[in-house]
Amino acid sequence: MAEKPMWEQIGSGFVQHYYQQFDTDRVKLAELYTDASCLTWEGEGFQGKNAIMTKLSSLPFQTIQHSITAQDHHPTPDSCVMSMVMGQLKADQDQVMGFQQVFLLKNVDNKWVCTNDMFRLALHNFGA
Amino acid sequence: MGDKPIWEQIGSSFVQHYYQLFDTDRTQLGSIYSDARCPVTNKFCRVFSRGIFSGQKCGSIDASCLTWEGQQFQGKAAIVEKLSSLPFTKIAHSITAQDHQPTPDSCILSMVVGQLKADDDPIMGFHQSFILKNINEAWVCTNDMFRLALHNFG
């Protein structure tokens, strides 16, 4: 069986690590971001590692669990890796909710960091 | 009130154009993707290691990639063929939310959450993400990922 393409290995490796860290001790996510990273969390923008970590650390739940339904990875024109994740999460005693997240990963000094991160709960204001 | 940042203007304008085109005549979507031959560099891109691209060079580091429900397509022709052959006559997309960010390499990353209705099927949620790159003064879509919001549990 052929090996997965490089960008899929990098992307899926990152995604697994990200959610594992998020669910166990999200303070440790700091190493994945740089001062040039951008996060958009439910429509609100945060720039740089410090602002991002302040936001993630202050999210109002004690326990959180992510479950990945699907993930896709692409190489981008500028040798980055784009990853899109669709899944479900459960925070504390709240009901299970769908979410979508997109990451852009860049190799900086031989390490893959997250330069762009966008997260949304899959909540629609109409229809089914 | 300040203007929206430029990447938001470009991103939201692209998103509006994309879904308008998709819903009215998706065979015209070719205009937003890039050809297999890069007009700017002459570099060959990475080699795909499986599927129909196995062992082949794609021809351009800027050839567009689409992943549609987990299936990958490379280059404008393959992408348009896939989109044109989707098995519905009518389609309507409704955007619930969209986010846009500038990337380190001057591209734009856009994420869309929405709902769609194909023919008489029930409304379904979808997720789509795009990377836009400025090539020869036009913003083209180099990366496109689409998934229906279907979960297998819970």
TrEMBL record, chain A:
GO biological process, one term: mRNA transport
NTF2 domain: residues covered: 10-121
Main location: cytoplasm
Pfam family, one: NTF2
Family matches, as PROSITE patterns: NTF2_DOMAIN (PS50177)
GO CC, any one term: nucleus
InterPro entries: NTF2 (IPR045875), NTF2-like_dom_sf (IPR032710), NTF2_dom (IPR002075), Nuclear_transport_factor_2_euk (IPR018222)
Assigned keywords, A-Z: Cytoplasm, Nucleus, Protein transport, Transport
Subcellular location per the Swiss-Prot or TrEMBL entry: Cytoplasm; Nucleus
Physiological role: Has a role in nuclear-cytoplasmic transport of proteins and mRNAs.
Designated name of the protein: Nuclear transport factor 2
UniProtKB/TrEMBL annotation, chain B:
Chief location bin: cytoplasm
Listed Pfam families: NTF2
SUPFAM superfamilies: NTF2-like
CDD domains listed in its UniProt record: NTF2
Keywords in alphabetical order: Cytoplasm, Protein transport, Transport
Location of the protein in the cell: Cytoplasm
Sequence ranges assigned to domain NTF2 in this UniProt record: 10-148
Classification via InterPro entries: NTF2 (IPR045875), NTF2-like_dom_sf (IPR032710), NTF2_dom (IPR002075), Nuclear_transport_factor_2_euk (IPR018222)
Cited Gene3D superfamilies: 3.10.450.50
Gene Ontology CC terms: cytoplasm
This protein's record includes keyword Transport: yes
This protein's record includes keyword Ligase: no
Gene Ontology BP terms: protein import into nucleus
Protein name: Nuclear transport factor 2
Organism annotation: Sinocyclocheilus rhinocerous
